[in-house]
Amino acid sequence: MNESPVADDGTLLREHVLGRVTEELSAMFDGVFSPEMVERYVFESYTALGRTATFTTYLPIITRRFALDRLNALAHAQGKRPSGVPEVLFVCVQNAGRSQMAAALLKHLTQGAVNVRSAGSMPAEHLDENVVTAMQEIGLSLGEEFPKPLTDDVVRAADVVITMGCGDTCPIYPGKRYEDWHISDPATMDLEGVRTVREVLTTRVRNLASGLITVP
C-alpha cells in the first residue's frame, strides 16, 4: 500500500510562517495586488534568498522584508502606489560591499527624500565584515542589511541605476538614468582599503544626491 508523502516539521513550519507573511502583506496591498500575486512574491523571495543562506533561522524574517520591498517597487513601477520621491538602485556583484555602502550613505544623506535599494547579480551569503566595520566607524549600521538578488521589479521602479562591476547583468529599460561607477571591490581588501572605498563612495554619493535633491 502506497502512503501519501507527509511534509516534515521544518517544511510545515516554513509553510505556516510564509502563510502568515502572505496574509500580512496581502492586507497591506489590498486593492493593489491579489492575494495570489502576493503569495507568489513571498515564496519566490524565500526561494531566491534561500539559495545563498547558510543559516535559515532568520530567513522568513528577511523574506518578509525582501518581498515587501519588491511589492512596493512593483506598485511604484505600475503607477498603483507611487512613492513620490526619486528611486535609486545600486547594483554590484555580491551586494555585500560597494552597493550596500553606497545605499547606506545615500539613505543617510537624503533622510527619506530618496528611496534607495541595492541588489547583487550574484549575491553573497552575508555582508563583508570590514564593510560593516567601516560603516560603523561613521555611525551607519548595516546590521539589519542582507545581500539581495537583483530582480526585474526593483529595476523597473528605479529612476537611477548605478552599477559597480556587474557588467551587463542589469536589464536596460528606456527612460532611466544609468551610471557605471568604477569602484574597487572591497571583498579582498583589509579595513584600511575599505575605508578608502568608503571615502570615494561618499564623494560619489554626495554628487549623485545633489542632482536629485537639495543637499544640506
Quick structural gist:
This protein has 2 domains: 9-82, Corynebacterium glutamicum thioredoxin-dependent arsenate reductase, N-terminal domain (Helicase, Ruva Protein, domain 3); 84-216, Response regulator (Rossmann fold).
| Oligomer description | single chain
Evaluate the radius of gyration.
18 Å
Within CATH, the superfamily of the largest domain carries the name Response regulator
Q: What CATH architecture of the largest domain would you give?
A: 3-Layer(aba) Sandwich
Largest sheet: 4 strands, parallel
On the 0-100 scale, what is the average pLDDT? 91
Set out the fold topology.
Layout (H helix, E strand, L loop, with lengths): L8 H20 L6 H16 L8 H19 L9 E6 L5 H13 L4 E6 L8 H8 L15 H6 L2 E5 L12 E4 L10 H20 L6
Parallel strand pairs: 1-2, 1-3, 3-4
What does this structure look like?
There is one protein chain. The chain has 216 residues and is α/β, with parallel strands linked by helices. The chain has two domains: 9-82, Corynebacterium glutamicum thioredoxin-dependent arsenate reductase, N-terminal domain (Helicase, Ruva Protein, domain 3); 84-216, 3-Layer(aba) Sandwich (Rossmann fold), CATH 3.40.50. Helices cover 47% and strands 10% of the residues. The protein has seven helices and four strands. It has helices at residues 9-28, 35-50, 59-77, 98-110, 129-136, 152-157, 191-210, and strands spanning 87-92, 115-120, 160-164, 177-180. The chain has a four-stranded parallel beta sheet. β1, α4 and β2 form a beta-alpha-beta unit. α1 (9-28) packs across α2, α2 crosses α3 and α4 packs across α7 (191-210). The chain is globular and about 45 Å long. Mean pLDDT is 91; it is low at 1-7.
